[in-house]
Amino acid sequence: MEKEKQSMTAEELWEQSGLTGNYEAWSFSEAPDKLAALVKKGIKTATCSAYDLYEAGDEPLPKAGDYSIILDSGNSAVCIIQTTKVYVCAFSEVTAEHAFKEGEGNRSLAYWRKVHADFLTMELAMLHRTFTDRTKVVCEEFKVVFPPVSG
């Protein structure tokens, strides 16, 4: 199979999109290539992270209207997303709808809970914190705005 695209920096993709304003460029910490591909295809339309990570880094939470450029494992720009919804809840309160929107595995809540409990346990351990079902998570929903999702 031919490789049809050349790698592009976040700045180049932003310029090509014609969008204006600010953006963040980042990659998913687990399986960045796989998850970026799911986002680009419009399958993955949500993500979540530990609230404690924002608090520890003194970083603002994402908010509706924010733009992000999704990067692959080589820091090449894959697509631009716009955040449509952000909310904070306990891990145990994440819904099956959110799990489905995350687009991973079989898209079930059981699958989501298993992989995210493992992931959050590892992430929080770096902060010397413990994961529980009451751990607060930041749930974010988004849409791909560039390039347009095809097919």
Describe the structure.
- It contains five helices and five strands; from the N terminus they run αβαβαββααβ.
- Helices cover 31% and strands 25% of the residues.
- The radius of gyration is 16 Å and the shape is globular.
- The protein has one domain: Sulfate adenylyltransferase.
- The protein is an alpha+beta fold.
How many helices? The count is 5
The secondary-structure element order is HEHEHEEHHE
Q: Return the average pLDDT rounded to an integer.
A: 94
* Shape estimate: globular
CATH class: Alpha Beta
Ends apart, CA distance between termini: 19 Å
Number of strands: 5
**CATH fold title:** Sulfate adenylyltransferase
Largest sheet, spatial ordering of strands: 1-3-4-5-2
Helix content: 25-40%
The helix/strand class is alpha+beta
Radius of gyration, whole Å? 16 Å
CATH superfamily: Sulfate adenylyltransferase
Summarize it:
The protein is of the alpha+beta class. It has 5 helices and 5 strands, in the order αβαβαββααβ.
